[in-house]
Amino acid sequence: MGGQNGILPLLFISLCLFITFTTAAKRYTVLRIEVSSKDQLDYLNEQYLNSSQFDFWKEPSSVGEQVHIMVKDSLLHNFVEQLDSRGIKHKVMIDDVQKVIQKRANDSAKFYENKLYRDAPENRIAFNLAKYHSFAETINYLNALAITYPDRVHVMPIGITHEGRQIPLIKIGTRSRADKPGIWIDGGIHAREWISPAVVLYFISQLVTEYDRDPTMRNLVDSMDWYIVPLLNPDGYEYSRSSSDVEVRLWRKNRSPTMCTQVSTGLFSPPTTQCCQGVDLNRNFDWFFGQVGSSTDPCSEIYNGRFAFSEPETRSVRDFVTGQNGKIKTFLTFHSYSQILMYPFGHQLRTYPNDVNDLSATANKAAQALQSMYGTKYTVGTGADTLYPASGGSEDWAKGQMNIKYSFLFELRPEDNVWDGFLLAENQIIPTSRETWEAVKIIADQTLQTF
Ligand code: ARG
Ligand code: ZN
Q: Staple 54 to which of 48, 147, 229, 302, CB 3.0 to 4.6 Å?
C-alpha cells in the first residue's frame, strides 16, 4: 500500500515533466555561425559535432566558413552563452523551423498543377516536375514511362529496403550498339534532401521525353546507357514526408531497426542505454569505412552501421554496379545543400586519385555550364577539401573501389547565405533542375569523348 502511495504522485510529476519537455522540445532554431579562428573551429568540433542534441545542417569545415546548427529551444540559451563567451559570431538563420515546415506544406497544397512545367502537353504522361513527390508517385511515373516508351526505358527493382519497399532503377538507352558506356545517377540517399530526387526525376524526363524532339537527347540516349535511381532511400524519404514535426521532416538516415549503445552520464552514475534507428547510408560504403567523419553511435546523424554494406540500400548499389562488369564509366550522386561539385577523395584532406586533373577539369567545366544558366556559383574540389573529411561515402567507393573514372557528388541549392537549407521551396525545383542538367550534360559528353 505504502509503495503505491509513493508511486502515484511520482507518476504524476513525471507525466507533467514529460509534457513540459515534449512541448518545449517542439521549437528548434537554426543558427548561422561564422568561424574566425582555428580555436573556434576545434571548440565546435569537439564540443558539439558528436552530440546527438545538435543537428549540424552544415558542419564546421575550415576557418572563414559558415556552420549551420539546428538547436532545441531548451539548449539554445546555454549554447548562445557559450558562443558569446568565446567571441564566436552567430546569427539566427531560421527562428522557428517548425513554422517553415508548416509554411512549405501549406504552399505546396495551394500549388495547382503548373502546365508550364508538366511534361510537354504532347506527351502522354502528366507529371508535375515542379513539385516534391511521394515514393508512390515516383514509382507510378517511372512505370508510366516504361509503358509509354518501351523502346528506350526499362524499370527494375535493385533491392528491398528494411520496410519492404522496392528500390526502383530506371534504365534509359536504345539498342544501338553493344558496347555503350554506362552512366550511374542516384538521388535521395539522404532523406531530408528533397531537392535531390526532384532534380533526378527532371533528368529522367528530359532524356526520355525530349528524345524525339532534341538531337542532343537522342545522342545521349543512343550512345550511352543511363542507370538512374531517383530515390535510393525510400524508407527515410517517406518517413521525412510523414509529418511536419521537425525531427521527422529533417530525418537524414535510412530506417534500419533500432540499435542500442551504452552512454556514460558521469563519473559516479552508471552508464545508461540509448537506442536509435537509422544508418547514414553515405557512411556505409566500403571505402575507409569507419574512419574520420563517421560515428559508431547509432544515435548519431553520421552513424556508419555495424559494418560496410550492412544496409540493403547500399548493398543494392554495390551489387548493381558490380554486376555491370566495368561498363559504368561515370557515377553521379546528388545531395543538398551548399552548391559544391565534389570529386574524390573525400575521406581525407588533400588526397587525390592519379587522374585528378581529368576530374577537376571536367568538374570545372560542368560548374561553368551550370553557372551560365542563372549565375549560380558552385565550389569545386574534393569533399574533404571543400566541406569536411567523411569516410565510407559512395563517391569515394565508386572511384577507389570500383575504378569508375568520373565519380562526382553534387551538393545542390541553396547556397550558404540562403536561409532555408534543406527546406528549399518548390519554386526552386525547376531552376535548380535546369542548371544542374547543364552540368550533367557536360559530364556525359566528357564520358563519350573518353570511352
Ligand atoms: N553531405 C554529404 C555527406 O555528409 C557529403 C559527403 C561528401 N563526401 C565527403 N567525403 N565529404 O554525406
Ligand atoms: Zn546528403
A: 48
Cα angle: 383, vertex 386, 388; to 5 degrees: 60
Average pLDDT, the chain: 92
> Which pLDDT does position 267 carry in this prediction?
78
Residue 323, C-alpha cell as written in the block: 554486376
How far is it, in rounded angstroms, from Cα 62 to Cα 34? 10
Please name the residue that has the C-alpha cell 538512374. 228
Atom of ligand 1 nearest to the CA of 347: 10
Cα–Cα dist 165/168, whole Å: 9
Assess contact for 274 and 299: CB atoms under 8 A. Answer: yes
Q: Say yes or no: CB of residue 187 within 6 Å of ligand 1.
A: no
d(CA 192, ligand 2 centre) in Å: 8
pTM: 0.93
Name the one residue in this structure whose C-alpha cell is 517511372. Answer: 142
Query: What's the rounded Cα separation, in Å, for the pair 251 and 238?
Result: 10
> What is the rounded distance in angstroms from the CA atom of residue 242 to the CA atom of residue 235?
11
Going by C-alpha positions, the residue among 407, 412, 378 that lies closest to residue 393 is 407
For ligand 1, atom 1, which residue shows the shortest CA distance? 335
The residues that bridge with 264 in the sheet, in sequence order, are none
DSSP string, 319-372: HHHHHTTT-EEEEEEEEESS-EEEES--SSTT---TTHHHHHHHHHHHHHHHHH
Residue 3, pLDDT above cutoff 50: no
